[in-house]
Recover the amino acids of this structure.
């Protein structure tokens, strides 16, 4: 499937900021199920933009710009060609030993209730892949998809306790449980070309990958209850949302920050009217 | 428990017995001095410390009194011969910790060779994946090592714990010596005590020696503190002051073009070496905790570019993890081909089934520690624990065996200490400091002796009622 | 030196200076209030104290009408007022603590003792006399700080930032008195000589410790334009705008020399000083005293910002 992504993230500061530095994880890597036809990241301020890679192997851009700035817009325009790989990831460099993905992070810690949930989900299942599918089903069923109950800082515990959350929260819960039952697991951020034809989206997508002996890394999308397909565009991975976040930034001064996101993920060649959409606040903090 | 080895009187530890040779002159002098003399000097010492303590109080606000750590005027003395062996052991230890870190952030040979389980290293929360892309200048990770040593017999020293992140306490070592020299100048005339005052010069030399390639000879080093509200702020400002370098907070630094600068009244000034007393988690909000205001956004990018040295290196914490500690004898053998000069305390890893079973059976005899605990908290001292405390710990062990290690209850050596009941033996440990630079390794002769002031107690941490003593290494 | 260190030194001195100034305003208001009605007190002295402190809005929101109790509370003890004596002493101490190693122990102790002693005071049980002692104590604490700085601090850049903070704050304070009382200084106002006027004049002079100075300098009975001259242009008078401006310029020159670089702060300070040196009081009155003072307050605030941009951040 050919998928086009137009993604614009705009930060507006109530008072001009003196300086901004950001780490952008907005550029995908190719893998066997994903060919990058074209990809551009543009920033509308004068500043330095350095391309690099992080420890997880993600392509990153480091942006630093001096103020006064009232607004910054990050624009992504890209096109990829995808293939269904039954969720299996290959042709992607693995920089880290898989054991690093066994640790829990503050966003994926478990309570006894969550541990019990994970234990119940896999009880009587021996095969690792079957266990992960059992978990996938359990998380998908247990947690209601709801865009209003959580934020980017919500932990697996909080989302599980509420029983509600977005793709990020479901991914965290799945990862927490997978690690708890012994599978190395990681967080993936990316995009989803929706099957219902809706192309304007409020936020990007997230799912999980877990390591299965003999198969390697396999994707699990608990928000959709299945494995990632040719509709998924994989952009970055990490321990959790924080280490795979599309944008992490800090700024000096500037008062309150408002964020607007416009995201259009459209299967090609269909073209539709593109208009602005407001999304939830993304991760960003003030400094100084 | 058998009687402990006494630093002053040896294995047969009697306060009125014959002293070991390093203590002979002290013993003679103490016996010749009337008790009132010591009472007066102890009061004087307290005054001195209260005055320094005013400095503590400045930062400690209302709880200032709790921050005065009790000081005992009887020095702990180590003979030159004993010290030379300790020194060799410490240098070996520091070298192995560095080799280990360089290895696990690089090729991972120790894991591949099966010396240590991969999960223990890579799954450790202190293992910072960012460091797989960063080679610290001069390949040094643990520039400042504080090793906690205990003694159980004439020639038996053990390493109880390594502190490879930001070991603290060195200001006490220096202040204790200063106070002792003011109180007992005559004692220093009778002994040849190796100086510790050189520590801050050595530290500055070490920091400058590890500056990135291309820095000038007098590279700019700074001490990075979390700020005046941190409990160790006194030490941060003390060290910056003695070294004559700036004491900076995160907001004083900024990163531009992957280089670190500090904001000064004369404009931005390049920083080459950061002696940080801020934990990894708070160092760079773009990489670690996003809400940290204590760090410097972009610092890790500058570090990755090789433009700044962070002391100790980010990610050094994986080397002083209590679970990794248990593999140190194997790691020493692996990296040096030799046995450890300073052995570990024998340790059961509760993650291993057999060990766990043994530990659960012998809890009343053992000391059980949390792998990630520190400061003497989260610890069970079997012989002094109540039955219910033991039951609580047994439960914890069963639910989270990986989180604990256990050790035999060691008869830590004692040292005569002034107490309400007069001069009494009290258990002590020793934290010497090892500085590893690109030019040389510097071990300050001495260290911080911590003393458990409560009779029979083995917990020397200041947060748990411990005090300190001056530590003398004799030039004999 | 670190910009943060310089910033703390600058604000340390500003806050101590402001605490002293607040004590002076309260002192003057109390003296006015203690006079028999018609003999000087017109009931507006408390209002005027609030006006000079430049906190009228916050005051009215919190207390409503100005009377002795409310003004005492607001200007001396109120936690919520960022410009109360309490807040000033507390902020001074926090700044001092942050740069403890850049201060001599004498300077540190002066600030720390002031704060500790302040905390031992019993605001509730304070009668008129006790409050008067408190005012004197506050002024003495500020003098003790100034003295410690003068006698013990190294004459380096840190010293210059302490002096700069004090001089900027002091210039602002004198200008604010002039701004609130300017109408009294206009030659067109009531002929001088009545009891009310006499006490009003005394009040102004007292607020800036210039009662005796006036007679030394002018050897005349009190004349409004001479009072204005004393407070604005007279270089012998340490609180005059010209004196403060000379002090600011001198300290900035020192910094420019020490750092080998002059900048916007030096240019702005020199310009202000030049203007104050060439002006005569008649010219000021001709073009409007009120306009002059208002413009000076803005200029002084801008200078503070320029200093901050050049050195403190």
């Amino acid at each position: 499937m050919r998928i086009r992504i137009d993604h614009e993230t705009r930060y507006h500061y109530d008072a001009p900021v003196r300086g901004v530095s950001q780490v952008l994880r907005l550029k995908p890597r190719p893998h066997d199920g994903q060919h990058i036809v074209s990809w551009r990241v543009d920033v509308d301020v004068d500043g330095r933009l350095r391309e690099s890679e992080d420890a997880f192997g993600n392509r990153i851009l480091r942006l630093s710009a001096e103020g006064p700035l009232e607004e910054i817009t990050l624009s992504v325009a890209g096109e990829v060609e995808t293939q269904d790989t039954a969720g299996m990831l290959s042709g992607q460099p693995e920089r880290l030993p898989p054991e690093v993905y066994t640790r829990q992070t503050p966003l994926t810690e478990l309570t006894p209730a969550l541990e019990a949930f994970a234990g119940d989900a896999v009880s009587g299942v021996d095969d690792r892949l079957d266990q992960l599918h059992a978990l996938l089903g359990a998380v998908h069923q247990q947690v209601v998809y709801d865009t209003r109950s959580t934020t980017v800082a919500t932990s697996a515990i909080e989302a599980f306790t509420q029983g509600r959350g977005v793709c990020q929260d479901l991914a965290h819960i799945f990862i927490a449980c997978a690690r708890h039952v012994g599978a190395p697991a990681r967080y993936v951020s990316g995009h989803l070309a929706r099957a219902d034809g809706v192309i304007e989206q409020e936020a990007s997508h997230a799912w999980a990958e877990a390591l299965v002996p003999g198969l390697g890394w396999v994707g699990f999308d608990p928000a959709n209850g299945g494995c990632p397909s040719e509709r998924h565009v994989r952009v970055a991975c990490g321990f959790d949302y924080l280490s795979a976040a599309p944008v992490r930034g800090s700024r000096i001064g500037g008062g309150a920050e408002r964020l607007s996101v416009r995201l259009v993920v459209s299967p090609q060649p269909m073209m539709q009217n593109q208009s602005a959409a407001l999304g939830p606040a993304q991760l960003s903090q003030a400094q100084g | 428990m058998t009687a402990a080895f006494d630093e002053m009187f040896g294995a047969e530890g009697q306060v009125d017995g014959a002293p070991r040779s390093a203590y002979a002159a002290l013993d003679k002098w103490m016996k010749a001095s009337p008790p009132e003399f010591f009472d007066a000097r102890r009061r004087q010492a307290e005054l001195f410390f209260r005055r320094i303590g005013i400095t503590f109080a400045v930062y400690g606000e209302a709880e200032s009194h709790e921050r005065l750590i009790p000081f005992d005027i009887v020095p702990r003395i180590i003979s030159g011969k004993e010290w030379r062996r300790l020194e060799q052991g410490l240098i070996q230890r520091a070298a192995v910790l560095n080799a280990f870190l360089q290895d696990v952030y690089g090729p991972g040979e120790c894991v591949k060779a099966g010396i240590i389980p991969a999960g223990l290293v890579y799954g450790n929360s202190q293992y910072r994946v960012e460091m797989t892309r960063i080679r610290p200048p001069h390949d040094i990770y643990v520039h400042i090592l504080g090793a906690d040593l205990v003694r159980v017999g004439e020639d038996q020293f053990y390493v109880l714990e390594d502190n490879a992140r930001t070991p603290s306490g060195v200001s006490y070592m220096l202040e204790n010596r200063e106070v002792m020299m003011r109180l007992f100048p005559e004692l220093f005339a009778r002994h040849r005590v190796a100086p510790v005052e050189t520590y801050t010069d050595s530290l500055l030399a070490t920091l400058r020696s590890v500056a990135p390639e291309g820095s000038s000879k007098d590279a700019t080093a700074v001490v990075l503190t979390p700020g005046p509200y941190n409990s160790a702020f006194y030490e941060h400002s003390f060290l910056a002051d003695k070294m004559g370098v700036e004491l900076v907070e995160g907001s004083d630094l900024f990163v531009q073009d992957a280089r670190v600068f500090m904001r000064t009244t004369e404009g931005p000034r390049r920083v080459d070496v950061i002696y940080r007393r801020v934990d990894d988690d708070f160092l760079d909000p773009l990489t670690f905790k996003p809400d940290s205001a204590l760090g410097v956004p972009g610092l890790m990018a500058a570090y990755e570019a090789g433009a700044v040295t962070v002391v100790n290196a980010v990610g050094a914490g994986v080397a002083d993890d209590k679970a990794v500690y248990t593999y140190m004898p194997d790691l020493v053998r692996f990296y040096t081909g030799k046995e450890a000069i300073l052995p570990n305390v024998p340790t059961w890893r509760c993650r291993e089934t057999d060990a766990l079973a043994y530990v659960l059976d012998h809890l009343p005899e053992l000391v059980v520690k949390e792998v990630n605990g520190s400061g003497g908290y989260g610890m069970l001292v079997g012989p002094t624990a109540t039955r219910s405390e033991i039951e609580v710990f047994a439960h914890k062990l069963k639910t989270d065996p990986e989180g604990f290690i256990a050790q035999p209850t060691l008869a830590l050596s004692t040292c005569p200490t002034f107490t309400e009941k007069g001069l009494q033996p009290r258990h002590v440990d020793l934290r010497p400091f090892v500085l590893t630079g690109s030019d040389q390794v510097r071990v300050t002769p001495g260290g911080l002796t911590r003393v458990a002031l409560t009779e029979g107690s083995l917990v020397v941490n200041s947060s748990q009622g411990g005090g300190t003593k001056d530590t003398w290494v004799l030039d004999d | 030196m670190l910009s943060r260190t310089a910033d703390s030194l600058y604000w340390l001195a500003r806050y101590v200076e402001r605490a002293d100034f607040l004590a002076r305003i309260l002192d003057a208001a109390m003296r006015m209030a203690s006079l028999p009605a018609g003999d000087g007190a017109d009931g507006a002295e408390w209002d005027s104290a609030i006006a000079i402190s430049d906190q009228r809005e916050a005051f009215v929101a919190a207390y409503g009408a100005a009377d002795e109790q409310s003004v005492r509370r607001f200007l001396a003890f109120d936690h919520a007022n960022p410009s109360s004596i309490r807040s000033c002493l507390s902020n001074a101490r926090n700044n001092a603590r942050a740069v403890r190693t850049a201060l001599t122990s004498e300077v540190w102790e002066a600030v720390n003792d002031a704060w500790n002693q302040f905390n031992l005071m019993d605001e509730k049980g304070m009668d008129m006399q006790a409050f008067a002692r408190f005012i004197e104590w506050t002024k003495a604490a500020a003098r003790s700080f100034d003295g410690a700085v003068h006698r013990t601090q190294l004459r380096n850049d840190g010293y210059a930032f302490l002096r700069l903070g004090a001089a900027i704050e002091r210039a602002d304070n004198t200008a604010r008195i002039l701004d609130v009382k300017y109408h009294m200084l206009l030659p067109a106002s009531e002929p001088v000589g009545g009891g009310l006027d006499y006490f009003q004049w005394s009040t102004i002079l007292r607020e800036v410790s210039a009662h005796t100075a006036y007679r030394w300098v002018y050897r005349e009975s009190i004349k409004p334009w001479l009072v204005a001259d004393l407070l604005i242009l007279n270089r012998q008078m340490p609180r005059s705008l010209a004196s403060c401006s000379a002090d600011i310029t001198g300290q900035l020159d020192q910094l420019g020399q020490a750092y080998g670089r002059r900048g916007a702060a030096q240019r702005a300070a020199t310009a202000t000083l030049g203007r104050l040196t060439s002006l005569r009081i008649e010219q000021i009155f001709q073009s409007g005293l009120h306009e002059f003072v208002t413009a000076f307050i803005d200029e002084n605030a801008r200078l503070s910002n320029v200093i901050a941009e050049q050195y403190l951040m």
User: Anything to note?
Assistant: Chain C touches chain B through 19 residues (CB under 8 Å). Chain C has two domains: 1-153, 154-313. The first helix of chain C runs from residue 3 to 34. Chain C has a mean pLDDT of 88.
